[in-house]
Design brief:
heterodimer; A: alpha/beta; Peroxisomal Thiolase, Chain A, domain 1; nine-stranded mixed β-sheet; two-stranded antiparallel ribbon; 11 strands; B: mainly beta; 6% helix
Chain lengths: 384, 134
């Protein structure tokens, strides 16, 4: 891209059970908070991106209209858990192309409570369902469990690695006032949790949540006039290796991060050693382990060692998911990973115990589908 | 909640595959130009983009690429069947497919294990290709 871009506002709603707000209501609340955080007038926003959020027709414009915004640029994006990270990149590209100047990106979901919660098992369709679900394939959990099994086979990764990841996320969530699961978790709790799809136990799985988040992207020039210090997008990348893990070319032990990561580091002109905090998409514990390897924070196969002894906790070598992640804060499709990355770099915006002191650079990842989509952002306090 | 077992809904691309399963024959598409075998059925070759292909029977032999043991009734339709083993099978001829390993205890399943196809009739038109130890 020709220009330099920054995230200038972030918003987050309550997460967990939020019965009093509809899905669209949560989207509007997150947007309002992001706009106020940026110190903008909402009429200045001329780009709106939303995730699909259930498939309502032209949903991004529905949300824009309800916010009183008539955008020059809007579209719905659907990349599963990579959507939020990829929305930031789409926003940059749209601004760089001159389509608009300031883009509001929103994701909301209602999985726990209320009439807007999805109630039906999806119908058997082509694609995912026809060659998976009739066999009793429950979806994402089985895909990731099978990937973990293969990783264990190739690298001797022990189950305790997954338990260590679950405990670290819970520890961080316990410090976050807006987290769904704040009660402490021990390794004994982990071993006692029931199998769902072996090698995954219940505590290897993310939360099911109501909640929403939003962020605003604009040019570095525009960002300088706004309320908060801009957090620059110093590096970015995407790689989407396959839709189905049953594709014969799919490598179950590697994520798209092995391409999107190096692309992002190259664009930022830094290496994994320069990252102070990582907000890594964590629909299941194993994914964090694979990301640590695929991003080059450690060698392939060494993830289990990397997550030992509190090394991914605040105060450790690389604090991961300082908000508690999908595993313990709540599942808002990775949107709150972006929000948290920005807040960590601004400094002083989260509970002091979960602030990574002096953090200047964050890596934020998104990951979706059957290990299908992957996106990377490298955020920086310093203008690139 | 609908607890009826979900059945495949064959379409233009997949009906020959499912007819084959009904006849207890595992069929894959073979590209007429580059001869690559492919699975999930589709009218265009992902290697050379030729739209010419033929359906060809494969051996039904393969190996377990990886697997997971479903021990909880995540899907209501399958609650009565747990535990069962979901697996990715690499066929000898190349394609990979999702299936189930039957005919042995879940604890006996290993990555790399040799397996062969067998067919389980679910109704008058649909049979699923499962795999069992060879």
């Amino acid at each position: 891209m020709n220009g330099t871009y920054a995230i200038v506002g972030v918003g987050e709603t309550p997460v967990g059970k939020v019965p009093e707000w509809s899905k669209t209501g949560l989207a509007l609340l997150a947007a309002k908070r992001a706009i106020e955080d940026a110190g903008m007038n909402h009429k200045e926003i001329d780009g709106v991106l939303t995730s699909q959020m259930g498939g309502t027709f032209i949903y991004s414009l529905e949300v824009a209209t309800l916010l009183g915004i008539q955008p020059r640029y809007t579209t719905v994006m659907e990349l599963g858990g990579a959507t939020s990270v990829c929305m930031a990149q789409q926003a940059m590209a749209a601004i760089d192309a001159g389509l608009c100047e300031t883009v509001l990106c929103i994701h909301a979901q209602k999985q726990q409570t209320g009439p807007t919660r999805p109630r039906h098992t999806p119908p058997v369709d082509r694609g995912f369902d026809e060659f998976d679900r009739p066999f009793g394939h429950p979806g994402a959990i089985a895909v990731h469990a099978m990937a973990a099994q293969r990783h264990m086979y190739e690298y001797g990764t022990p189950n305790v690695a997954f338990g260590n990841i679950a405990m670290a996320m819970r520890k961080h969530a316990s410090l976050n006032a807006n987290a769904q699961r704040r009660e402490p978790m021990t390794l004994d709790d982990y071993w006692a949790s029931r199998w769902v799809v072996e090698p995954f136990r219940l505590l290897d799985c993310c939360q099911v949540s109501d909640g929403a988040g939003a962020f605003i992207v604009t040019s570095a020039d525009r960002a300088k006039d706004l309320r908060k210090a801009p957090i620059y997008i110093a590096g970015y990348g995407q790689f989407h290796p396959h839709r189905f893990i049953s594709d014969q070319h799919a490598d179950a032990t590697r994520l798209g991060a092995h391409i999107s990561g190096p692309d992002a580091f190259r664009r930022a002109g830094i290496t994994p050693k320069d990252i102070d905090v990582a907000e890594l998409y964590d629909c299941f514990t194993y994914v964090v382990l694979s990301e640590l390897e695929d991003y080059g924070f450690c060698e392939k196969g060494e993830g289990a060692e990397f997550v030992q002894d509190g090394q991914i906790e605040i105060g450790g070598r690389l604090p991961v998911n300082t908000h508690g992640g999908l595993l313990s804060q709540g599942h808002v499709e990775g949107m709150l990973h972006v929000v948290e990355g920005v807040r960590q770099l601004r400094g002083g915006e989260v509970e002091p115990k979960r602030q990574v002191p002096g953090a200047r650079r964050a890596l934020v990842s998104g990951h979706g589908g059957q290990m299908s989509t992957h996106g990377t952002l490298i955020l920086s306090r310093d203008e690139p | 909640m609908n607890t009826k077992r979900p059945l495949p809904r064959p379409d233009e691309d997949s009906e020959v595959f499912w007819e084959g399963c009904r006849a207890e024959e595992l069929r894959m598409q073979e590209c007429s130009e580059c001869h690559t075998l492919r699975f999930r059925p589709r009218p265009v070759c992902p290697e050379c983009l030729s739209d010419q292909f033929k359906w060809t029977p494969v051996s039904g032999k393969g190996r377990v690429y990886t697997f997971g043991v479903v021990r909880s009734g995540v899907l209501p339709s399958f609650r009565e069947e747990v535990p069962y083993v979901l697996a990715l099978i690499d066929l000898e001829e190349g394609p990979r497919m999702t299936s189930r390993i039957v005919g042995c205890e879940p604890e006996a399943v290993e990555i790399g294990m040799s397996v062969r196809v067998l067919f389980e009739a679910l109704d008058d038109t649909i049979s699923l290709p499962y795999f069992c130890p060879q």
